[in-house]
Structure to design on (594 residues):
């Protein structure tokens, strides 16, 4: 498996320079607070709308699976919990934003975002910032940040797709947009009979999900603009678990239901030579786990933020965040934080320096300062070297603070701390962009549930290498390669971290030719340490390689026929030990546009 991944990536990389290509489009990363090119920062990856359309995947988690350094732990297809890990850090250390709104779950014991039900149809862009980003976004960004941006539509759009496992997926939306104003609305839904999530199960686990978006912007004057977003999501997933009397993973009649609202409003004002933004965002989550008993969880978060920016040279701001959670056990807690931050960039002839600093003052804990510094040097001949160092932290979650389901006396907890180091060497010309990044991430005071209570005991470290190539081979062909090696260790036990493969790689080829378009994607992972089917001991999940194929044919300017084949080789594989992924699946669809 390891040799196959390495050989596939290496052969594709070696053949790339010999092919003709056109210019690689410029990429700008907005989640870095200051709009930035990946060439002057480290750990930045962008998936644009063109790639989302070409791959045709149903869920956002499938898009992330090909980003170097990002791994997914999904407990079964079609609505299984999908936890995002960046550079080996546990899922609670990945901060997730949707249209700038933090959507991590304050009611979960560790507080991660569950990407299992996040559909891809309404996404315009996905950005990943790897490494500690505490100086940009505060708590929860130790491993990195994933930022999703939804679509702004012009005219009407609609699509429908149906196929294997009685799956039906639909999307419809409409909007109008110009320089003065925009208004857009869309709705997307999916329904499937699914497969058994447990690999020892026999009954199918169905899934239903609906997402609706409303967004708009208006320019009041050359110096004043307003924009707002509103998003609603609901999902209902049948799940498997550890039912008595064996308490081993298998078929159950359990279900997981959730409902979320999120909204944001922002005013942008020009004055005193600066661009000022005042924004308010809110996130409200209600979820239920329905098994032999009902477990209900409620969570909400509000963020009020002001920033002032001077072009792409400096931005500074303050924010107030309040979050609360009500747990099924009846315990609840309100947590809040006040912060100030600044990011600055200095450009010389060949050298670009980017620095950020942040001061967080959580009401329940001591104040914490974090920072990040990156230096990019143009070496000439298309080469750029970037070195960076950054810090991060994470305050305990509500479950950890109240010691939910603890059977021993609770102890005071400290925020988790992290530091990370990156070194990136990039090369590009008018048709190819390539980069290799080495990094190290160290997490101290990691919180773990040990001896029936939460304590600061663990220390984890990750060292790794990420490599990627993005090449336009011709006017009609684009090639993307990704590879990651990761050595992630729990320093308290000197054992490998769970659910982190040592090697992963992907190859994606995108093409357009007349009315035809499509993509072929191959990805694979080596084996990884995992939790056994008894839910306690350790075992090994085998490695896998899987391939997907998608295609579209334009009947005319308004109608496109689509087809997708997932798991083309009909390979049996699991992303998490004990949880099924589908065999070969075929989907046919049609898209309408004005």
């Amino acid at each position: 498996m390891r040799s196959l991944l390495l050989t596939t990536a290496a052969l594709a990389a070696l053949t790339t320079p010999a092919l003709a290509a056109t210019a690689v489009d410029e990429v700008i990363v907005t989640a870095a607070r200051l709009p930035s090119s990946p060439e002057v920062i480290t750990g930045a990856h962008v998936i644009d709308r063109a790639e989302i359309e070409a791959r045709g995947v149903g869920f956002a988690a499938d898009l992330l699976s090909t980003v170097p350094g990002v791994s997914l732990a999904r407990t079964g297809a079609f609505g299984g919990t999908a936890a995002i890990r960046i550079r080996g850090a546990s899922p609670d250390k990945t901060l997730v934003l949707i249209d700038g709104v933090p959507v991590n779950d304050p009611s979960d014991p560790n507080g991660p975002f569950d990407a299992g039900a996040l559909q891809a149809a309404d996404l315009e862009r996905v950005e990943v910032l790897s490494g500690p980003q505490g100086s940009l976004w505060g708590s929860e960004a130790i491993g990195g940040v994933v930022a999703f941006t939804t679509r702004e539509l012009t005219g009407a759009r609609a699509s429908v797709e149906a196929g294997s496992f009685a799956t039906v997926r639909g999307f419809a939306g409409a909007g109008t947009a110009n320089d003065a104003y925009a208004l857009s609305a869309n709705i997307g839904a999916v329904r499937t009979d699914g497969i058994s999530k447990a690999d020892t199960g026999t009954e199918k686990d169905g899934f239903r999900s609906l997402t609706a978006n409303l967004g708009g912007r208006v320019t009041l004057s050359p110096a004043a603009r307003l924009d707002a977003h509103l998003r609603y999501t609901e999902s209902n997933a049948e799940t498997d678990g550890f039912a008595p009397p064996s308490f081993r993973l298998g078929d159950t009649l359990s279900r997981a239901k959730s409902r979320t609202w999120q909204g944001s409003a922002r005013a942008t004002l020009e004055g005193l030579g600066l661009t000022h933004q005042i924004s308010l965002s809110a996130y409200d989550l209600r979820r239920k786990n329905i098994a032999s008993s009902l477990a209900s969880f409620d969570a909400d978060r509000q963020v009020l933020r002001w920033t002032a920016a001077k072009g792409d040279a400096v931005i500074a701001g303050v924010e107030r965040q309040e979050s609360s959670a009500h747990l099924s056990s009846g315990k609840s807690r309100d947590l809040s934080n006040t912060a100030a931050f600044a990011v600055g960039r200095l450009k010389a002839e060949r050298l670009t320096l980017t620095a950020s600093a942040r001061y967080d003052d959580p009401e329940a804990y001591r104040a914490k300062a974090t920072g990040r510094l990156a230096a990019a040097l143009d070496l000439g001949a298309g080469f750029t070297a970037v070195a960076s160092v950054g810090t991060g932290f994470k305050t305990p979650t509500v479950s950890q603070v109240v010691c939910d389901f603890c059977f021993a006396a609770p102890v005071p907890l400290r925020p988790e701390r992290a530091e990370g180091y990156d070194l990136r060497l990039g090369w590009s010309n008018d048709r190819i962009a390539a980069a290799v990044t080495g990094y190290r991430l160290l997490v101290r005071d990691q919180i773990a549930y040990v001896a029936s209570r939460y304590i600061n005991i663990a220390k984890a470290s990750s060292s790794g290498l990420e490599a990627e190539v993005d090449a336009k081979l011709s006017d009609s062909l684009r090639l993307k390669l990704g590879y990651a090696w990761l050595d992630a260790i729990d320093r308290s036990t000197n054992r490998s971290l769970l659910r982190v493969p040592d090697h992963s790689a992907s190859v994606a080829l995108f093409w357009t030719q007349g009315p035809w378009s499509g993509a072929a994607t191959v990805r694979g992972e080596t084996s990884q340490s995992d939790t056994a089917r008894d839910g306690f001991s350790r075992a090994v999940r085998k490695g896998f390689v899987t391939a997907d194929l998608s295609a579209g044919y334009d009947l005319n300017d308004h109608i496109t026929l689509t087809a997708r084949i997932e798991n083309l080789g009909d390979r049996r594989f699991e992303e998490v030990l004990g949880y099924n992924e589908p065999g070969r699946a075929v989907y046919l669809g049609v898209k309408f546009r004005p």
User: Anything to note?
Assistant: The first strand starts at residue 44 and ends at 47. Residues 2-592 form a domain with the Maltoporin; Chain A fold (CATH 2.40.170.20). Helices lie at 2-15, 49-55, 60-64, 134-137, 398-402. Residues 1-24 have pLDDT under 50 and may be disordered.
